[in-house]
Write a structure and sequence with these properties.
There is one protein chain. This protein is α/β, with parallel strands linked by helices. The protein has 10 helices and 10 strands. The two termini are 14 Å apart.
């Protein structure tokens, strides 16, 4: 694979993410590519954000939420994100922001708000995206050349990858609504004088401009973070998806829908991997993909451990059949 990514000039690690139907072998592909790149001198961080982790099982090492060296040279570090803890971190941050922005509402039921938020649509996706952003920062802080993320099955991963684009649109809409509210406050202030709210013994001035309105500042900060992620996930020079499929019809259909989803949100595909390939004649569509395509044959017993992952490298990097 002559186009093997290296660390970017700006100091950012190249981001590779697996994507595929459950059971197709995404984790095996992520682990074997991580081992292969580390063997070739790249500094690699491999991380699983799948709630049903098995990156450690595939590498045959016990992994936790913090990176740990997997190879003797220390070029490959791996971890499994604690997704329950990630969700709690996300909810706590939301609670802190709401508490700060609405501290003048003494009747605010924060516990009820959090309980509702915990089970709301999109929360799991936001928490997962926040973890991806944290992993990018972690990989960059450790001067990694490549970050490989083993993802959950297709549906959740596509919703996560679409989130930055969708969130930027929502943030623009909510900012417009907030701007209209501030304009009305401003009109009232011209007629009635400055408006205030009492918080305990303190009296807070109600903002009439975006630059001193905490809600507008939260929206602005959120939009900037989502726009940064959107550009990162859409940049073919900094990011690519490893689409993993098996040579059966159901896997092929789901992969086709996943590729359509990636295209709709501009997320580039770096490679198509046909795992557990039977030899060629059962996968007539392989050569039709407009990406570098690799086949990994079916193995029995299932490849497990560092040496087994190393043995798969020729299939991924050199296209061995």
């Amino acid at each position: 694979m002559s186009e093997t990514p290296g660390r970017l000039a700006a100091g950012q690690p190249y981001l590779l993410m697996t994507l595929g139907k459950g059971g197709t072998g995404k984790t095996t592909v992520a682990a074997s590519l991580a081992v292969a790149l580390a063997e070739r001198g790249f500094s690699v961080v491999a991380a699983s954000i799948d709630p049903a982790h098995n990156l450690g099982d595939v590498l045959d090492v016990k992994l936790g939420p913090d990176p740990q060296p997997v190879d003797a040279a220390g070029r490959l570090q791996a971890l499994e994100v604690d997704t329950d803890r990630a969700l709690e971190r996300f909810l706590q941050r939301q609670a802190d922001e709401v508490r700060g922005a609405y501290r003048y509402l003494q009747a605010l039921n924060l516990d009820g708000y959090l309980q509702t938020l915990r089970y709301s649509p999109g929360v799991e996706e936001h928490a997962t995206l926040e973890e991806m952003s944290r992993l990018l920062d972690l990989a960059q802080a450790r001067c990694a050349d490549v970050l490989i993320i083993d993802t959950p099955p297709t549906g959740l991963t596509l919703r996560v990858l679409s989130l930055p684009t969708v969130s930027v649109r929502w943030a623009d809409h909510l900012a417009a609504v907030r701007r209209a509210l501030l304009e009305r406050r401003f009109v009232l202030e011209q007629v009635l004088g400055p408006q205030h709210a009492r918080v305990g013994e303190a009296e807070l001035h109600l903002a009439t401009r975006e630059d001193n309105d905490p809600i507008s500042q939260i929206l602005k900060s959120y939009r900037q973070s989502m726009e940064t992620l959107r550009r990162r996930l859409q940049d073919v020079h900094t990011c690519g998806v490893l689409a993993v499929k098996n040579p059966d019809r159901l896997s092929t259909f789901e992969t086709a829908r996943a590729l359509d989803g990636l295209a709709a949100f501009g997320v580039p595909v770096a490679m198509m991997v046909v795992n557990k390939a039977a030899g060629g004649e059962q996968e007539p569509d392989v050569e039709a993909y407009p990406y570098p395509t690799r086949k990994i044959p079916a193995f029995s017993p299932e490849p497990i451990g560092f040496e087994a992952m190393r043995s798969l490298a020729p299939f991924l990097l050199e296209g061995a059949r």
